[in-house]
Amino acid sequence: MLTAVPCYPSLNVSPKLTEIFGEAFRELRPHTDAPPMHVRFYAFVSINNTIRLRQGELYMRLSDLLEGAPETVLYSIAHILLAKLYRKPIDRVHSTRYRRYISSHDINAKARLVRQMRGRKHIHSARGHHYHLEEIFEDLNQRFFHGLMGRPQLTWSRNHARSSLGHYDPAHNTIVISRVFDHPRVPRYAVEYILFHEMLHLKHPVKLRGSRRCVHSREFLAEEKSFPELEKARKFLRTV
Fold this sequence. Notes:
Zincin-like
């Protein structure tokens, strides 16, 4: 939540935001004079909020998707950012309120649209040196989904990422698989399992349970168990 890559111009400074951040600062640090604050909405690619302390002054940028948010939500954002900066405990009331707001249907829909408009997805190729993702997708589609799943964009990652083995990006309808698995020593069932897992994300979108996002629902986990070499694949992935 504290890091973002600025890609678009800043929007107008909001005096009301500055006032809200001042109140949050006084709550967290009642015996310290508040430094000069510069708070503005910013056109990030997604919902990001940043805070920086430079030469004794605070600079905060909030996603422009949060313009129009209730003042209670903006206050919670101020509390969270300042608490992280000054290493103070984050009040659960504020973290819950913020998560509940950004997880709402309307904000999720806006965020997805903004990512489509502002974000750029690097699509390389589904054809690797050893495995072709489109061929594997069609095989899995017939075996597990009766051939009914529409094929998203499929691509190997640009680099040999190990922190993210694969992911489904709903904003760009794209499945990305780490290029580390496009190797002759990687068994096909491991690649199949990773792609199958991401296909399940396409079939079972993220659900909201209160203020929490449910990424792997019961239906998701139950269907994942139908993969015949599940444990074998997981065992191999632990070696990676």
